[in-house]
Amino acid sequence: MKQKLSAKEQLLVGLTLFSMFFGAGNLIFPPYLGQEAGSATWTAMLGFGLSAVCLPILGVIAVAKSGGLTTLADRVHPVFSVVFTLLAYLSIGPCLAIPRTASTSFTMAVVPFVGGDAPLGMFQLLYSIAFFCVALVIAMRPEKLTERLGKILCPTLLILIAVIFFGCVFLHDGGYGPAHGKYEEAALAAGFIDGYQTMDTIAALVFGIVIALNINEKGVREKSSVVGALVKAGIIAGVVLALVYVALGHVGALAGGGGFDLAGNTNGARTLTAIVGELYGSVGTVLLAGVFVLACLNTCIGLLSSCSEYFSTLIPAVSYRKWLIFFAFASMVISNAGLDMILKISVPVLSAIYPVCIVLILLAFLQNVIGGLRFVYPVTIGVTAAISLLDVAGSQGWIPPVLSNLPLYSVGLVWIVPAAVAILAGAAISAVAGRSKTR
Predict the structure, then answer these.
(1) Residues sharing a CB contact under 8 Å with residue 81, sequence separation 6 or more, in sequence order
(2) Is 289 exposed, middle or buried (0-12, 13-18, 19+ CB in 10 A)?
(3) Full 3-state SS string of the chain
(4) What is the pLDDT of residue 413?
(5) Alpha-carbon dihedral 84, 86, 89, 94, rounded to 10 degrees
(6) Which of 18, 182, 314, 390 is the one with CA 20 to 30 A from 138?
(7) Contact, 231 vs 60, CB < 8 A?
(8) Contacts of 188 (CB under 8 A, 6+ apart)
């Protein structure tokens, strides 16, 4: 039994984790951010990096050191653990993230090549069937993903993204345009919230189960060694994510300042299409299609594997492969709702779940300090969840904006101050309860 991975094996595991993270949202949101932020791109990208790079990597480390998502969530309450874990897996699984991989790649890999009068509904159905069949075949052996994603698909994807980036650097004349909308007033906070859309902080909580299988497959089985390898994989994935986001943000900012007709644009797919088409013509359309298909396929495989692995342990009577087939089929059906519809649904869902994920991860890193204070987790997570739900309900117009007088409400981060106060309140309640018990 090996004590640790070789440097090459560790790099491949890190690239595999990057491949699982880097999918539809990771491709379309950084360029859209650059397009809209313009001269404020790098301030917005800093916020984006905090929520789309730092938090996911902290999530991987937190779950690894805590012994798994269920163990971490149990610190709040067993009922919360079950409900939250199910919500996490379903939201980054068949309900939102997996269908989005097929919808986004279809938008970029098929729509540009067919006529305006083509039966897009039929084409999308056929494409989604083929897409999920390929993902299904590769995901049948989750312990082999390092060989299939890390060695082959990930390097190919990175090469294609590099071609787009360096084409913009050397072939495109022009600069950034002005900042628009929310990026004029609060670029940092806007970028931070944009990072929610990648879903990677949620994904970070659930990917460990599959990455651990790949580490085990390479002969490393001792728990401390597996945790160490997971942490290193997270750092490698984070570095690659940051580099790619910087490249895509720059591309989007150039597109926004380049005089393209992007009025009414709602996602980065059109942003990339505009500038890559200018640089490479029809070849660029093919290049972009390849980038989107590879990125979305990689993430789809990782998400299918993670969800199926979890549910096969939750309900052992149904095997991993049966869950895999079920989730692939369900995702295929939902993906045919279309990208815009999926994005519209994902915004309120992620805005409600993300703050809870962030606070849970941060509490995990405070475990040495708050471990003996049993009310900190439930009070803090309870307050964060309540504030997030009220904020989403108000922003969607379901109820009046009852939180509008709280700090950071205007920039969409109203949960931060209540969460910080709740940590102190939970610690105080724990201390009082502890003294009462000793009397």
Answers:
(1) 70, 73, 74
(2) buried
(3) CECCCCHHHHHHHHHHHHHHHCCHHHHHHHHHHHHHHHHHHHHHHHHHHHHHHHHHHHHHHHHHHHCCHHHHHHCCCHHHHHHHHHHHHHHCCCCCHHHHHHHHHHHHHCHHHCCCCCCHHHHHHHHHHHHHHHHHHHHCCHHHHHHHHHHHHHHHHHHHHHHHHHHHHHHCCCCCCCCCCHHHHCHHHHHHHHHHHHCHHHHHHHHHHHHHHHHHHCCECCHHHHHHHHHHHHHHHHHHHHHHHHHHHHHHHHHHCCCCCCCCCCCHHHHHHHHHHHHHCHHHHHHHHHHHHHHHHHHHHHHHHHHHHHHHHHCCCCCHHHHHHHHHHHHHHHHCCCHHHHHHHHHHHHHHHHHHHHHHHHHHHCHHHHCCCCCHHHHHHHHHHHHHHHHHHHHCCCCCCCCCCCCCHHHCCCCHHHHHHHHHHHHHHHHHHHHHHHC
(4) 86
(5) -130
(6) 314
(7) yes
(8) 43, 44, 46, 47
Among candidate residues 48, 39, 5, the one with its CA nearest the CA of residue 246: 48
Cβ atoms of 355 and 419 within 8 Å: the answer is yes
For residues 88 and 205, the answer to whether their CB atoms sit within 8 Å is yes
pLDDT tens-digit map of 389-401: 999 888 888 888 8
Per the structure block, which two tokens stand in for 187? 């670029």
Rounded Cα gap, residues 241 and 98, in angstroms: 19
CB 149 within 8 A of CB 298: yes
Structure tokens at 430: 């724990």
List of domains in the chain: 7-339 (1.20.1740.10), 366-439 (no CATH)
244 neighbors 161 (Cβ within 8 angstroms):
yes
How many other C-beta atoms are found inside a 10 Å radius of the C-beta of residue 225? 17
Q: Which two tokens stand for residue 192?
A: 């931070």
Contact 429, 379 (CB under 8 A): yes
The predicted model scores a pTM of 0.84
- Sequence-distant contacts of 69-73: CB under 8 A, at least 24 apart: 69/205, 69/206, 69/208, 72/205, 72/360, 72/364, 73/360
Locate tokens 């900190």: which residue? 376
Supply the mean pLDDT for the chain.
86
Q: What pLDDT digit, counting tens, does each position of 123-159 carry? A: 999 999 999 999 999 999 887 877 777 778 788 888 8
Q: How far apart are CA 189 and CA 186, in angstroms?
A: 6
